[in-house]
Amino acid sequence: MTMEHKVERKLFDEVMVPCYNPMPMIPDHGKGSRIWDQEGREYIDFAGGIAVSCLGHCHPVMVDALTEQAQKLWHLSNVMTNAPALRLAKRLTELSFADRVFYANSGAEANEAALKLARRWAKEEHGEHKSEIIAFTKGFHGRTFFTVTVGGQPAYSDGFGPKPGDVTHLPYNDIAALADHISERTCAVMMEPLQGEGGIVPPEPGFLQAVRELCDKHNALLIFDEVQTGNGRTGTFYAYQESGVEPDILATAKSLGGGIPIGAMLTTERLAAHMKPGVHGSTYGGNPLACAVAEAVVNEVTKPDVLDGVMEREQWFRDGLEAINDKYGIFSEVRGKGLLLGAALNQDWEGRARDILVAAGEEGLLVLVAGPNVVRFTPSLVITKADIEEGMARLERAIAKVVAG
């Protein structure tokens, strides 16, 4: 990094809208599961750009796909189609329940498309009265006004004036509450098959099946938000595939592009027919550059050794966290599946997740939080055992510091 290219962290406060509070260091480059800042200091990455960098940084498969496509076509708009978009869509339909794909640029946009499709279907098939969207408290579905309203965290949706209407929130994992409330007015139930931002909360046995059955009984659609759980994160390509429960609509993003912005809404042929020309759209959605990279990522992630390796790495993480907890006794449990894991702090350490994140950063380790009480880990799906062990050593030093006060 030459001196004239170096930027200071204080520039952020001078030029950026203050909706983030980023770390003091500024990353310069990454390779695999390691990142180096402008000073040349090295960090181990257990955060993966919030479950995005599923193949780590600068994976050759991604670099090659980007470089090759960069010499051909970057953007066309949807006045035309393009080969990478069609190849990727074919792959996604082969790998899932879906027959049809709509491309967007993010998880929020994929969820927005899912919600608009559900409302459109209900209106055209059943009439205006069938418009209720049911979602779950602590759920997270993006930051557009519709998706943030459907998300069950008022802190993110309050303060912007009147919200989109006919959205109901019920407790996650409470089958009785859903059975009591759902009706013929319900258009769709939207949920994460494993809650991410809300604290890495897995579904209890039978919950997903019960939701599916209640949706079928009341002729409502089931929308799975797999933005964080999808693309191999939990050890199957989509998390729903292990549950035996199929949604009607699925939203995917984050790991789909391995770091390049892309999202997709997947659905059936029957439902897709309601999205006629002009009903919905996206200027950048499905652009050839993003789709070429995503196709390469999907082909790599779906290799059996990569998916099998996710479960192996989950165990390495759990073993490392258990060893740390044996010494310091700060976690009540480790929740989640595959490489979407959350270490929940016990009563004595409530509200201290961010302190651990900051201390970890000082030790050269990048982690995340999921609310004030959960330290979240969403690393590369191909992170090496050596990087996990070194990361755990740094996490232990960070926790020792926090415990020592």
Explain this structure to me?
It catalyses: N(2)-acetyl-L-ornithine + 2-oxoglutarate = N-acetyl-L-glutamate 5-semialdehyde + L-glutamate. Pyridoxal 5'-phosphate binds at residues 107-108, 140, 225-228, 283. It is found in: Cytoplasm. The chain has helices at residues 10-15, 48-51, 60-70, 83-94, 107-126, 145-150, 154-157, 175-181, 207-217, 240-243, 269-272, 288-301, 304-328, 353-362, 385-404; strands at 27-31, 34-37, 42-45, 100-104, 132-136, 167-170, 186-191, 221-225, 249-252, 263-267, 331-337, 340-345, 365-366, 368-369, 374-377. The two termini are 35 Å apart. The chain has 15 helices and 15 strands. A seven-stranded mixed beta sheet has the order 4-10-9-8-7-5-6, sandwiched between helices. It has two domains: 3-59 and 304-404, Alpha-Beta Complex (Aspartate Aminotransferase, domain 1), CATH 3.90.1150.10; 72-301, Type I PLP-dependent aspartate aminotransferase-like (Major domain) (Aspartate Aminotransferase, domain 2). Helix 3 packs antiparallel against helix 12 (288-301). The chain is α/β, with parallel strands linked by helices. The mean pLDDT is 97.
Kindly list the characteristics that best describe this protein.
single chain; 405 residues; alpha/beta; Aspartate Aminotransferase, domain 1; Aspartate Aminotransferase, domain 2; 7-stranded mixed beta sheet; 15 helices; 15 strands; transferase; pyridoxal phosphate binding; N2-acetyl-L-ornithine:2-oxoglutarate 5-aminotransferase activity; amino-acid biosynthesis; identical protein binding
